[in-house]
Amino acid sequence: MIPLINKLVTKCNFIPNSNKIIFDLGIKANTSSSSNKKINTKFGSWFKALISSNVLPNGTLKTSRGIRCLAKSGNECLSLDEIFIDNWLFEKNIKAEKEPLYPKYPEYNKSGRRRADWKINELSKALNLKLISINPSDLNNLSEKLRKIKANASTI
Hints:
alpha+beta; 2 domains; 5 strands
């Protein structure tokens, strides 16, 4: 698949979106969704397939929301700030679930599709979530900002 992805990117002269993958690539699949399924099974995601194919400069992809990159944990991050935090958690051996869903709630999360960036330690009781906001100014001193979760993680 890697040579086919390289060929696609070369032919298009841009990095196509996962929902716009053109599969006259030669990957046998009945529909584009089954093509995406094959990519996801082999690589985990279209983004990871692009990284494996070495078609992204520095393994990153500039988007309208930031710079998409892959953290040391294997998590996909949507910005450089996110990768900085994810790498910090990984290096401190703090287990974190990336982008967990918030509980469904009639007023604030009707669809149930809103997500947090990470969930650390145990599940919180519904609507009694303990949240830590991390701002760009906090990135220079994550150890101080996240010292409570670091202490709790060592007791799990």
